[in-house]
Amino acid sequence: MPAGRVAAGGVPPRALDPRRLLVFGEVGRSGSLSGAARVLGWTQPAVSQHVRRLERDVGVALIARRGRGIVLTAAGRVLLEHAEAVAARLAEAEAALADLAGLRTGRVGLAAFPSAAATFVAAAMTGLAEDHPGLDVVLDQLEPPQALEHLARGGCDVAVVFDHLDEPAVQDGGVVVPLLEEPLLLVLPPGHPLAGRAQVDVGELAAERWVAGCPRCRAHLVRTAAAAGFSPQVRHSTDDYVVVQSMVASGGAVALLPSLALAASRHPAVVVRPPAVPVTRAVSARLAAESAQLPAVRALLAQLRRAAAPHRAP
Question: What region holds the HTH lysR-type domain (predicted)?
Fold first, then answer.
């Protein structure tokens, strides 16, 4: 009966109890109360009680006794069709959940910044596909602020982000899974006077022109330079690490790039040196607390940790 309707006499109908409906379905399939009791592992009186209560709820008789067995009434035959449909849908739900729990199917959304996406995130996705070919992983390449917004809106399950160690990490109330501490490296043009050094003091590059990256990376460069006693001459800005290296290779500037960017794509002409005072940033996976126990998310995190290991700072 549609919602809001009432039965004859103005009495609202009782809602069908799904459990009683499933018990009745077993009675109909078994052809007897005792047969249903054996299948269910119950006593016959318990099965009989469920059927009587279901009959009271629907307001009509559903079974009629014939000798030691029962037959279904016309109403019982109609209700049995619905009981079997409910049982079938529940079986489908159990199978679907088993597939998800066993990672035989499902979908997990991932957001990551470009250099991570091009390196260990790609490796993690490959490993996940090999272990669980039925699991669909969808990647959105986003810088950390946009990735965290995407995560907050439910657009992905896991966001891979970075935080510079000289700035407070973003606190969003979710779960933070550390993946690696990534060194940042100085990128010099070929033939630079300091190219022969094993390490380079950032302060010795005070007179150079710099290429800066995304807004957060540029702010970090300014702070790093300030700690070395100067304000950098930022002449170019691009968040494309391939373009950064091309500009440096042409001899027009220097840069400070994360090691993941250089692992993803290395210009053959540039010279890369670590700063005399190490500069690092923390790369982590962020996720909502309620996602932490999802099998697909746990499998993805395991692959991310494994793939990130070779990129960790010594």
Answer: 16-73
- Which amino acid, residue 7? A
Residue 2 lies in a domain: no
Contact 150, 202 (CB under 8 A): no
Q: Give the residue among 95, 60, 73 at the shortest CA–CA distance from 27.
A: 73
Q: Are residues 197 and 96 in the same domain?
A: no
Alpha carbons 196 and 271: distance in angstroms, whole number: 9
Per-residue model confidence (pLDDT) at position 1 = 39
Beta bridge partners of 110: 139, 158
3 within domain boundaries: no
Domain ranges, residue 143: 107-311
1 belongs to a structural domain: no
Assess if residue 139 is contained within a domain: yes
* Same domain, yes or no: 178 and 46: no
For the record, the structure tokens of 310 come out as 């070779």
Based on the domain organization, do 51 and 78 belong to the same domain? Answer: yes
Distance CA 194, CA 217 (A): 23
Q: Distance between the two ends of the chain, CA-based, in angstroms?
A: 69
Looking at residue 4, its pLDDT comes to: 42
| Number of neighbouring beta carbons within 10 Å of residue 214 | 17
Cα separation of 102 and 93, whole Å?
14
Confidence category of residue 264, pLDDT binned at 50, 70, 90: very high
Check which CATH number belongs to the domain holding 255 and give it. Answer: 3.40.190.290
Strands 107-112 and 158-164, sheet pairing: parallel
- Cβ atoms of 271 and 188 within 8 Å: the answer is yes
Nearest to 309, CA basis, from 149, 178, 175? 178
In 57-131, beta strands by DSSP E: 63-66, 69-72, 107-112
Query: Which SS3 state, helix, strand or coil, does residue 5 take?
Result: coil
User: What predicted TM-score, i.e. pTM, was given to this entire model?
Assistant: 0.69
pLDDT in tens, 187-198: 999 999 999 999
